[in-house]
Design brief:
By secondary structure, the protein is of the alpha/beta class. It has a single domain (45-411), classed as TIM Barrel. It is 34% helix and 12% strand.
Length: 446
Amino acid sequence: MALAKPINKQMTGCVSSFRMTVLKYKMKKIIFTLVGFCFLFSSCSKSNNSPNKVMTKKPDTTLTPPDTTIQTPQLVVKTNSIKIYAHYLPWFETPATSPDGKWGQHWTMANENPDIVDANGKRQIASYFYPMTGPYASSDRDILDYQLLLMKYSGIDGVIVDWNGTHNVYDYPLIKRNTDSLFKRVTYAGLQFSICYEDAQLANVKSIGGIDTITAAQQDFNYLQTAYFGGSSYVKINNQPLLLNFGPQTMMQPNQWQRALSVLSPKPCLLPLEYADGTTGSSASGEFAWVDASNLTGLRNFYNRASGLSTWFAGAYPGFKDFYKPGGWGNTLFLIDYNNAGTLQSTLNLATTSGAKYLQLITWNDYGEGTMIEPTQEYNFDFLVAIQKYAGVKYTVTELQLIYKWYTLRTKNKGNSTVEAQLTQAYYDLVALKVSAATTIINRIN
């Protein structure tokens, strides 16, 4: 999801295709570079011989076993008033969830095989970093609850989900399914939810599905309004549903956005990428920051002009180290050193001095570019601890470790209805901030 991010190469459906590369936006200027000749979004399926026909497996949406007391989720108290959201990628699949019974391409890229397991039990994945949970499916209920609990106890207010729309092209239906699953679980965790639209996928919908760009966008926006915008957990700014767009990359003219958004009432608070408001015209309410090779300089430049925008999001990230070249998906983009958690802390500090009201964490789980803040074997809980301190919550690594223990017990005791019921009760205790009660249950099982 970098500003110079190439699309994942596809084995079917196109020839050596890359994402329309969005280069760094400079003051009063937008530069877009096309790499390859297809405008393909980064989540196209590489193994499906009929990319416009994707069957999805229904995720587990079981909520409450017998004898479980559902607790009302409680808000975490923060001393920092800035609203913090994590940019979330819902594109991961395992053999249990993918239509072809294979690992999804965001774990494999072109040449990695997660079925290869080393002596330490670590699977081969397309990343320099390894999730503490191991590679997972984005529709897995236990993974979603684990991730949302970690966010909650880190002082993160909600998620901004990268979304490809509703059309049956490549793996977009899988991403839609996974996003729907996440939206359901967000409510139970007491967090908020918003969408970052990928208008780049509209080119694929037109070329493969034969649907006009504006019509396809209107269909996507109608779904957002029906399924998400009216929800109590959906992020609203000035009573408008928040809608980010990673670009624009396909709808490059203001009148295209006006026509596409004409089906919505109320109109969303639309934020394109930094320096891109000229392509969306009066439909946009501001912009959001993103990571690029200039690192802190790029952030400072954006913040210097952001005060003139009605609404804008600061950005913070831990570093950047993409796996594209070793993974067979093109060349390395750039490197931003992590400095342990120093880079994250520096970008958080800049967000504070910028005077931003809203902050996007870049990202929760983009392993291909190494911007993930969720717990990994390499950094453990370090990034989340830094965010806890920044947000000003009373919780520490102790609660994060407890949540991880809850997840591991959940996975180890599948099928044991007695233990599962106890762990579900511990989950509801955690969303209600009853840490002591949850700890008692988890330690008794452990």
